Structures are given as C-alpha cells and as structure tokens.
Amino acid sequence: MAERNPISFLPLMAVLCLFAGSHGYAQTGLTSPYSSRGIGYPVNANTVMGASMGDLSLGIRNHKNVNFRNPASYTALDSLSFVFEGAVKGQWMKLTTIEQSEKSFSSTMEHMVFGFPVSRWWSSGVGLVPFVQTGYRITDENIGNETGNVRHKYEGSGGLHSFFWGNSFSLFKNLSVGINASYLFGTIEKSQYITFPDSIYYLSTKVSDEISAGDIMADMGLQLTIPMKNELQANLGAVYHPATDIRAKRDFIAQTYLGTISNVEIIKDTVDFDDGLKGNIGLPQGFGVGLALEKKNQWLFGLDYTWDEWSKLTVYEDTDSLRNSQRIMVGGMYLPSTDISDKYWKHVEFRAGAYYSSSYLNIGNQQLDDFGISFGLGLPLFRSESMLNLSFTTGRRGTTRDQMIRENYSVLRFGITVYEIWFMKRRYY
Known about the structure:
By secondary structure, the protein is mainly beta. It has one domain: Outer membrane protein transport protein (OMPP1/FadL/TodX) (Porin), CATH 2.40.160.60. The protein is 4% helix and 64% strand. The strands form two sheets. Strands 3-4-5-6-7-8-9-12-13-15-16-17-18-19 form a 14-stranded antiparallel β-barrel. Strand 10 and strand 11 form a beta hairpin.
C-alpha cells in the first residue's frame, strides 16, 4: 500500500514564489515603443490554459483552473479542493520600420494565483497579476541649421500590478456571481533627453517623470450554465469593471547638464521641480461577454468579446488621444481520452485559438490593430489532477505605413497548476 502526501507539491510552489519575489516582478517583460502612450500597454493577464486558447476566459468554468478573469468562475472549484497556478513567460519581439529592424527578448513571472472553497456555495481566489507594463527606449536625431545634430532620447520602464482577493457565490444551481477586489500598485518611470553631440555650446536637457500608484479597484463577473442534451453544456459569462480613480504620487524634475561621466549626468541647473505631487489616474470602464460550449472532459469551444473605454483615461487630468479598444477571441481544447488505461498522450489536452483587437493606440489618426494565434498543451502529472501547461502565441501589432513601427512578437508561457484535496490523504493499493 502506497500513500501520497497531499502537500507534495509545496516545494515546487515555493520555488515559483521565490522566483516571483527575486526576479519576476522586478522586470516588466516588455520592450515596446507603443507602451509610451497612456500609462503603458494593457497586459490582459490570463491563465496559461486561457492564453493557449486565443485568450479565452469569460465563459470558462473548470474545477482545476483559477479563472481570475471572471471571478464568478471560482464556484466551479471542488468543495474540498485547493488549486494553485504559477506561470512564467519569455517574449521575443521584432520591431520593424521601412528602413530598419531590431530584435529583443525579455522574461518575467507572469502570475501567481490560488483558489479554494469557503463553503458549498462560496469560493475564493487570491493572486498577483500584472495590469499594465511600460518598457521602451527610442532615439531620434535631426540636423538643425545652427545647432548641428540634435539627439532626442525617450526611455520608459515599470508598470502597475494587481493583488486581488476574489469571491464567488452560487445564487442558484446554475447561476454564479463574483467580484475581485484588487489593490493596484506600482511605479511608472519616463525620461526624455535632448543632447547636442556636435556642439559644446549648448546645454543638454533631462526631464524625469515618475508616477507611483496605490489604490483599490474592483471588477464584477457573472456566469450562467445551461445543461443541454448529449452531456453538452453552454456557459454564458459577463464581466464589468467600472471607471475608477486611482490615487497617485508624482515626482517631476527638469534639469540641464553639461555632459556625462560613466553614464552619470553633470548637472548644471534645475529648471522645474515637483516632489510628491498628489493626483489621480482615471481608469476607464469596460465590459466583456463570452460563450463556451463544452462536453465535460472531452472538448470545449468558446468566443469572447471585450470593450474598454480607453479614450476616457486621464493621468493627473491629462488625456493622451487614445481610442476605445475592442477585442474578439475564439478558441478551444480537445482531450482524446479520460480512460486511465489509455496511453499518456491520450490524456494530454490540446488547445488552440486566435484573437483580433482594435487597440487603444491612435497613431497618425490611425487606430492600430493587433492579431495573433496561439497553441498549447496541458500535460497531466502522474497519478494526479495537477498539470503542466505550455502555451505559444505569435502575433503582429501595428504597421510600417506612414513611418510607423510594426511589432512582430512571440510569447512562450510555462505554468504549473497544482490541484490538491484538503484534509484528505490519497491511497493507492
């Protein structure tokens, strides 16, 4: 008789937690000049399973998955189960203009979430996920009649993250509602430099703008399950996040300098200065609806639509000529067999999907689009309902027309979902 300890996955979970604390959230995992707009590029964080299905989430109910994108889904967790998911990602980016191209790579901890039941009608989820990310370095040079070469350099880094506690309640047998209460926090740093490489008579200028945010926000969700014939089931999902003012603190300084020594500016004078200026980041409202049709433990097909009113984003009452964004996601999964006597590969989940969005970016009076496809696998662990999840996404954002930049990106995600039964030891004979 063999006995399996129900906390056997805790060492692996600890490794992921250590990685998150020491490496992951110290980096943005993004290199995109388009993240200079607004407060950064929206991450649209998702589970690895959802990301591999075209970024589906709103209609998904799975007892082995903490679907934090729709808090109403937490009631799908088993009444005695505990679920953990941690994920890391690596991103390859190629930036292309008509004249040149540039490649980059970045990696980061993507998310860490826990789900557990409180009662038969109440379940909770807790986690840490990215909200927006900023990461760019842009250099532009031109020739002035009197100054010679003038170099403009723009840099940005940082982002905002969300630590959430979500709760879901079963109002009726097939209807659940939920809410995620989140603490949004982080720092966004942006700098501008103007230098004159051909002249010693002009002072260089540096402008640094740092915004730190920390406040509470919330989003709500709903899911309705409709049983159908032949063991089929339809899940309708909806989410809404209201417009919210997030309290922030701003440090701003504009300086002139003579030059640099070991990349440190030799400051000549301070032109403007603000320290600890209080204000608000006005986040816009948004909503989403989704439908998933599934045959339990065999296959699933879904479709999601989201809309966000980014044109109403304000940072200290300033706007940034953004557009409202729309996103369509479609995808599904297939599980060949649930028969424990079948070979291992028949227990692997195969996933795929695609998405298209009209993004919030408005460059040269043109709204940029974003298109991508994704694939993934769910690899079950031996004698367990826990799973290793792999996802690969490749896509394109923007265009090279009208002197703009096209971004071609590929994202590889790796995650582990740990599914354990509380207060119970499993035995094998």
